[in-house]
Amino acid sequence: MKFVFDLDGTICFKGQPVSEKLLVSLEKLVAQGHEIIFASARPIRDLLPVLHARFHQHPMIGGNGSMVAINGKIISSVGFAEEILANIVQLLETYNVSYLIDSDWNYAYTGPANHPILNNLDPQKRAKNVELGKLQSVVKILILTSDNMGEVSEQLSKMEIVVHIHGNEGILDISPQGVDKWSGLQQLGVEEGEYIAFGNDANDMTMFQHAKYSVMIGGNAQLNPFSSEQLSLDNDIENHLAQRFDELGSINPLNKPVNLQEVTN
């Protein structure tokens, strides 16, 4: 069986790396014969620092599906079409938008110097902050602030792109059309119904829709209809996660017929 994990708010919390407790639990899944995949809104550059180096060989999906990496190296990426990107850039200028815009590796940042997102942005200084025009391609855009965020959101809704609202911060998270975590999984050859998914936010919906079984961390109204079960996000969440990894890990790793109900009661 394949296990697919979102990161922030699912197996790592408050911007901190995945804990050793959960790393050991993940290693146990691998020892049982399961495959693990990480799928995050973070670009690969910012995904690597929250995973211990001993996990960097596992497949990773970054930028909500716009980047796919194996052994810590990006093997494919999907950028915005030139015309679509030009329209977005015009919108940024019109409404005085501050942003974080990612290419495959480098980025352009114009947000406030004290914005919380900086806590997670390239902490290991693997990349460069450059002007937008110097990015080779654009695979992901975060709109942080604007003179009129409502109008920006309205204009974006008319474009052929994917837009998510980032948590409770009001950040608009933009990806190219057709790009999501499920499309990233497909690039890795993952098929529908052959994996168990763990996630916590709206950008995990497509990943949940095509999973054999899905576990939602905390509560999200958009994600809830696609969740097989929910784990409360409380002070004991890591123990709950480790327990579910153990229980779900008892599923036959060779994907032979199995009754999931037996390990969900």
UniProtKB/TrEMBL annotation:
What does the UniProt keyword field contain? Hydrolase
- What Gene Ontology molecular function terms does this protein carry? magnesium ion binding; phosphatase activity
Which Gene3D superfamilies does UniProt cross-reference here? Answer: 3.30.1240.10, HAD superfamily/HAD-like
Q: Name one GO cellular component term.
A: cytosol
Which InterPro entries does UniProt cross-reference here?
HAD-like_sf (IPR036412), HAD-SF_hydro_IIB (IPR006379), HAD_sf (IPR023214)
Q: Which domain of life is it from?
A: Bacteria
**Which protein, by its recorded name, is this?**
HAD family hydrolase
